[in-house]
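Hi, can you check this record?
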Amino acid sequence: MLYEKDFLAWTQQQSELIRQGRWQEVDLDHLIEELEDMGKSNHRELESRLVVLLAHLLKWEFQLNQLQDQWREFDGRSWRKTIIEQRVQIERLLEDCPSLSSHFETIFQQAYSTALKLACKETQLDSLLFPSECPYSPKQLLNEDFMPESR
């Protein structure tokens, strides 16, 4: 079956069949599966970007001062660039897929627990140092001017 052998060729074939109105020949089961996966993909991308954003905000708040004390030249520039990039990409994703906004709060909550684990591993700081609940609101997360105070 073409679907299993050459996915790109299968998508082109399905598009052409639909354009021609040859509905009986369309691989409906796989087409439905792929459409559902597309929606899941957007959900996963939003969660992934939120994880990275949250982890970097946590590192900024809880580790920046420590690293600046160790290395005077450390200014967190790479963290700031990552924070900016994730915000821009999240904004674009929400513009492209407005229905994701209705799931934002749930995805945001799921992302925090993963971001917390990531921040702990990357900083090697004790997990008890970080808040168990997200200290940032969704509005703060998406606010391009928001940066938490470094502790």
Observations:
- Residues 40-142 form one domain.
- The chain has a mean pLDDT of 92.
